[in-house]
Each structure stands twice: as C-alpha cells, then as structure tokens.
Amino acid sequence: MSTEYTYPATNPNAEPGHPGNTTPEDDARVVQLREQLHAEGYTDRTDTNTLLRFLRAVKNEADLVGKAKDKFVEVEKWRKEFEVDKLVEEFEYTEKDKVFEYYPQYYHKTDKDGRPLYFERLGKINLKKMKAITDEKRMIQNLVVEYERVADDRLPACSRKAGKLLETCCTVLDLQGVGPKTIWDSMDFLRKINQISSTYYPERLGKLLIINPPTLFNACFNTIKGFLDPVTANKIKICKLPELLDYIPAENLPVDFGGQCTCEDLGGCHRSDAGPWNEEKYTQPSLTDVKL
Known about the structure:
It comes from Pyronema omphalodes (strain CBS 100304) (Pyronema confluens). Residues 95-265 form the CRAL-TRIO domain. It holds the Pfam family CRAL_TRIO. InterPro entries: CRAL-TRIO_dom, CRAL-TRIO_dom_sf, CRAL/TRIO_N_dom_sf, PI/PC_transfer. The protein is an alpha/beta fold and 292 residues long. It folds into 2 domains: 2-82, CATH 1.10.8.20; 92-288, CATH 3.40.525.10. It has 11 helices and 7 strands. The protein has helices spanning 24-39, 48-57, 64-82, 84-90, 96-100, 127-133, 136-162, 180-200, 217-225, 230-233, 269-272, and strands at 2-5, 105-110, 116-121, 169-174, 205-211, 236-239, 287-290. The strands form 2 sheets. Strands 2-3-4-5-6 form a 5-stranded mixed beta sheet. It has a two-stranded antiparallel sheet with strand order 1-7. Helix 8 links the parallel strand 4 (169-174) and strand 5 (205-211). Helix 1 crosses helix 2 (48-57), helix 2 crosses helix 3 and helix 7 crosses helix 8. The protein is globular and about 50 Å long. The model has no long low-confidence stretch (mean pLDDT 91).
C-alpha cells in the first residue's frame, strides 16, 4: 500500500525546496531522511511534503538530513507526550467564547493567495482574567488542536479551492493596546505558545501583517529584522490598516479590520470559522491509501 494526497501536492509558483520546485539533491535527501526515520520506527507523517518542510526548517545546517531527522524525532516525541492525536479526537473547548473576550484569536477565510487567515489581537490579552475562566493547560491544548487543524483540514481545503498546494497561513497581528505591562504579565504564556508553534509546527508562516504597532515599535523592529533570516524577514510587514486590502480581499476581511465581512448569520467573523475548511466540496480526508 502507498498513500496519495487528495489535494494538489505541488505549487507552480513554489520557492526552491518546496514541492514542485526541488532539485535532485532535495529529492535524494527526502529518500534518505525517510529511510532513516523508518529504520528507527517512525513511519507516520513521513510523506514527501512533510519531510521537505522539515528539511527547509534546518536549511542553514551543515548536516541537513541529520538535523532534519533530529527535529522530526523531537516533534514526534513531543506529540506522544502531549497526546496530540487524542486531543484532536476528544478535546472540547467549551469555554472558548468567554476566553476570547480576553484574547481574541481566530481563523477566518483566506488571503489573496488562498491561504488561511489567522487574526490575533495581542493588545487585548488579559491572562489573569483568562485564568479565572480556565487554566493555562487547556488554553495551550486548544492552541495545539488549532495548529493541528491548520495541517488537516484547513490547508488541504484551501489547496483544493486554490488548485495549488498551500502550506502556510497569513497572520494579522493587531498590536493596538500592547504595552510593557501587557507583555510582562503574559510573557511566560506567550513564550510557551511561541515555542510550541516554532518548534513543533515549523514552516507554517507565509505572511505576518502587523497593524497598530505602539510607538517606537518600527525602530525596534528594523533593528531586529537585520538579525532575521532574509526569507523570514520578507514574510513580515508592518501595515497601516488600509494596506491589509493589498493582501486580503475586502469580502474576506472582517469589518473590524477595514473589510466588508461581518458573518452576521454565523454570530460574527470571530465565531464563524468561515473558510473552505467548512465548505463540503473542499473537505475530505487529506491522504488516501492506494494499491501499488
């Protein structure tokens, strides 16, 4: 038996090292990485596109295959310890609406490239009030479940609709209201969730659009940007609110961010989870077994 993707597996506009734009050396590394992982008993999630993603995540390392294998094994061990598969099947975040009042974050429709849109209002975070509703463990579990839904079913559904492989998301980060106290009070929590996203879900950021930055943020960011990998730095843009329409169709952008969408019949954009992943014609299992 083998497996095939049930959504477009390549992108004609792919960057180097991505499915559809690999070199013979890239392909050989995938084969080598898969053989090494299978030899150690890791047979899940070893499809070509996943392994290419891990190879890209360690692109500046000398021993690409070895470092990619180490990273993959680290992720698999964490998934087992955190019981990720069980969470995806059983977790119910019944307190979501109440927590949302103090940390608004949600997926909603797609950008002009067809990627899932993720909105986060960091300036409204109030960890003390959130912990009066739930505990930190459940907040993190919810975020992990959402990360899992990005891989399956959000990105596959968006790929089907776009007719090309999409592997990343577009994030709109609203910094209005962010100040030293906001960050200080939430620092440990934010560090934990950032560590999970960057370590265990690599290569998922396609574009980061930052709006309403506080005073002096631009100057600080320009300094930080100089230390970032050029590929990562090019994904980040500080925008004025109207500039979001350069990246996001007005009909997909919530009115709160200068767009036209209200999702009035679904309780508002922040509650709707509207997107191809909830449209029947774009949803189905991401992989299917086929006979060789």
